[in-house]
Amino acid sequence: MTEPSTKKSRSHPPYELLYWPGIPGRGEFIRLAFEASGVSYTDIGNESKEGIQQILALKADDSLGADGNSPAFAPPALRIPGEGKGGKPLLIYQTSCILSYLGDRLGLAGEDEAEKHWVLSHALTALDLNNETHDTHHPIATMKYYEEQKEEALKKAADFREARIPKFFGFFERVLKANKDQGQGKYLVGAKLSFADTTLWQVLDGLKFAFPNELAAREGEFPLLFGTFYPSVKEEKGIKEYLASKRRLPYSQGIFRHYPELDRQK
Amino acid sequence: MTEPSTKKSRSHPPYELLYWPGIPGRGEFIRLAFEASGVSYTDIGNESKEGIQQILALKADDSLGADGNSPAFAPPALRIPGEGKGGKPLLIYQTSCILSYLGDRLGLAGEDEAEKHWVLSHALTALDLNNETHDTHHPIATMKYYEEQKEEALKKAADFREARIPKFFGFFERVLKANKDQGQGKYLVGAKLSFADTTLWQVLDGLKFAFPNELAAREGEFPLLFGTFYPSVKEEKGIKEYLASKRRLPYSQGIFRHYPELDRQK
Asked: Which of A37, A133, A249, B23 could form a disulfide with A106, with the two C-beta atoms 3.0–4.6 Å apart?
């Protein structure tokens, strides 16, 4: 159990994050949005021992949804008391859908219609990179052990490092460059922080943990991304406080795993 | 080149779909949204020989975006003349982001805030299944040939058929069941067609092409999904007309490929 994430704002509904305890995982993209904006939320899985039961119920193979909500495929999910039909809790799932819902409410969604859709698009692209990272250690079967698919993982990770990482990093470098007048290399869209920034930042941070050699060798190729964007987002007030807190969970056996054999060999 | 997709409605802006010519691919999810709602669009890649140049320009490795738009990672993209900054065209990308943009405008996004987010969530889950289908024939490297990763594809496809297909189908069966009072097994959310329905329908249709043995063996396990939902969406007026037109492209070497060795062996 980590320290409660209760923070200053109380003009918002009491948001509840439903995600596995003990790992950053896909829940981290939602946590970062709350933390960056200083809006309070309850991290159900991490703040009580019984919390995990709610997450297991959410994804049960026979669930027909609760409180009149449509069923959810997998965590993370967001529950918002009072916002559902007939005053019941609203429950939504899928990381990017939750970010889209919160983006407007937390002031992280861009300033106008165009920016709003670019923010969502770029967040989705960062989440694609997140998924591809997961697949480097699980290229064949999500539910089997890494050791059972290590041979394939070595091949997948080589392609990821050599083809996918430069493609994604090169793209985001161009997004920052195209927005440099407004964003100064610090923001992907417009002149302020959005959930596209926090989402991409988390993926870059996870990649630094999982592929330290590869990232160290690549950083110089993408000066805006690693020279300006990454350190700048890390210093955003809410993010900086969060990273220094016990609420920030260490990487371990989730999406970002450090298997030295999958990294660039020195 | 296929026949022009110009249809009745002219109260909408002249939407332009930017996607590779000749294959359904991820562009098909956007086409189905337009066709289901009877709103006209131009399919740039398929309606002129020169169209592909615009798609290549969109994803060029040195693109900084056009008309003041943020760069796009990959097609599909949607261009909407007059809707961008300063009256220029707006350009957005990522399938689910485009569907989210169009959903409100085409009447395919659900009736209220709760339904709107469930529609987006379920569409995202159907698109996850679409991506996992792609990975059955390309588990190691997107840019290499199937024949170069066939051994791994056999393993990936076995897990997909045995673990992933029943998980996704079981989930969508429950979504239909939970909404049966309103949706009658025909709609995932609420009492009318949404882009979650058209998106899931397309994935099911593609899977029937790619894994005919597996699907034939599985259909009876999911009576709402295959007995009601699939045939019902296929009969929706706009969809039915579209499927009978030359605009509907055949599956070939895109996401949905029929490799008999990856299917269930009889």
From this structure: A37
Q: What is the mean pLDDT of residues A23-49?
A: 97
SS3 state of residue B153: helix
Task: Kindly determine whether residue B114 and residue A63, on different chains, have CB atoms separated by under 8 Å.
Answer: no
pLDDT at position A5 is 52
Provide the chain B residues 144-173 that lie in CB contact (below 8 A) with chain A: 144, 149, 152, 155-156, 159, 163-164, 168, 170-171
Q: What CATH number has the domain spanning A16-105?
A: 3.40.30.10
- Measure in Å the smallest separation between the Cα of B251 and chain A Cα atoms: 24
Question: What is the CATH topology of the domain spanning B109-236?
Answer: Glutathione S-transferase Yfyf (Class Pi); Chain A, domain 2 (1.20.1050)
CB contact under 8 A, B64 and A189: no
Selected residue of A78, A105, A118, A172 to mutate for chain B interface (largest B Cβ count, 10 A) = A118
Tens digit of each residue's pLDDT (9 = 90 or more) over A126-167? 999 999 999 999 999 999 999 999 999 999 999 999 999 999
User: Could you tell me which residues come within 8 angstroms of residue A88 by beta carbon, excluding any fewer than 6 positions away?
Assistant: A67, A68, A69, A82
- What does the alpha-carbon distance between residue A156 and residue A135 come to, in Å, rounded to a whole number? 8
User: Is cis: bond before A24, omega within 30 of 0?
Assistant: no
Q: Please, what is the angle between helix B95-106 and helix B195-210, to 10°?
A: 130
Which phi and psi (to 5°) does residue A77 adopt? -130, 160
Q: Is B114 near chain A, with CB under 8 Å?
A: yes
Give the residue from chain A lying closest to B83, CA to CA: A114
CB contact under 8 A, A70 and B118: yes
CB contact under 8 A, A113 and B93: no
Secondary structure letter of residue A75 according to DSSP: S
A191 touches chain B (CB under 8 A): no
DSSP-derived 3-state class of residue B136: helix
**CA B154/CA B140 separation, integer angstroms:** 12
Cβ–Cβ gap B73/A125 under 8 Å:
yes
With an 8 Å Cβ cutoff, is B181 touching chain A?
no
E-state strands within chain A:
16-18, 42-43, 77-80, 90-93
Yes or no, beta carbons of A73 and B171 under 8 Å apart: yes
End-to-end CA distance of chain A: 38
Residues B37-67 pLDDT 10s: 999 999 999 999 999 999 999 999 999 999 9
How many residue contacts between A and B have a Cβ separation below 8 Å? 146
Tokens 């792609």 belong to: B134
Domain boundaries, chain A: 16-105, 109-236
Name the DSSP letter for residue B89.
P
ipTM above 0.90, yes or no: yes
Structure tokens at A202: 């988390």
